[in-house]
Design goal:
mainly alpha
C-alpha cells in the first residue's frame, strides 16, 4: 500500500517485531504460553492502530480499544518478566519502554479526538461552500442569445 502510516502505527509495528524476536528466544515452556499471548496481543495493537487511522467515523471507538489493548500488553510483558522468560532485564526494559511510548501516543490521540471529534480544522469537515453543479444545460442556452 502506498499510504503513510502515523507514527503510532509505525511504533506499534516495531513493538510487534521486537516482541516476536524476544519470544523466539524464550524457553520452550514460556514460548507457547505467555509468548503466544504476547505475540497475539501485540498483533491486536497493530490492528487497532490501523483501524483507528483508517476508520475516521468510528475513530474514538477504535482508540478506546487501542488504549485497553496496550494496557493488557503491558500486563503480559510484566507477567513474562515475573516468570523469567526474557533473556535479560535489558530486553524487558526495552520492550516495556516501547509499549509505554505507544500507550502515551494512543492516550494523546484519544484526548485529541475527544476535544476535536472532527479534527483540528472544523471548517474542513463542514459542507462545501460552492455548489456541486456549476452550470446546467438550461443556464448555458440562455446565457448567450
Amino acid at each position: 500500500m502506498a499510504y503513510d502510516l502515523p507514527p503510532i502505527a509505525k511504533l506499534a509495528e516495531r513493538l510487534l517485531v521486537d516482541i516476536e524476536r524476544a519470544v523466539r528466544a524464550f524457553p520452550r515452556y514460556h514460548k507457547y504460553t505467555v509468548g503466544t499471548q504476547l505475540r497475539e496481543q501485540a498483533m491486536e495493537v497493530v490492528k487497532l492502530c490501523n483501524r483507528a487511522w483508517r476508520d475516521r467515523d468510528q475513530q474514538l471507538r477504535w482508540l478506546d480499544g487501542l488504549v485497553w489493548a496496550i494496557d493488557e500488553l503491558k500486563v503480559l510483558l510484566q507477567i513474562a518478566k515475573q516468570v523469567h522468560a526474557y533473556q535479560s532485564f535489558r530486553q524487558f526494559e526495552a520492550l516495556i519502554r516501547l509499549a509505554d511510548d505507544v500507550g502515551k501516543q494512543a492516550g494523546g490521540w484519544k484526548r485529541q479526538q475527544q476535544k476535536h471529534p472532527k479534527g483540528q480544522n472544523p471548517a474542513r469537515s463542514a459542507a462545501p461552500e460552492c455548489a456541486q453543479i456549476l452550470s446546467t444545460c438550461a443556464a448555458s442556452t440562455g446565457a448567450n442569445p
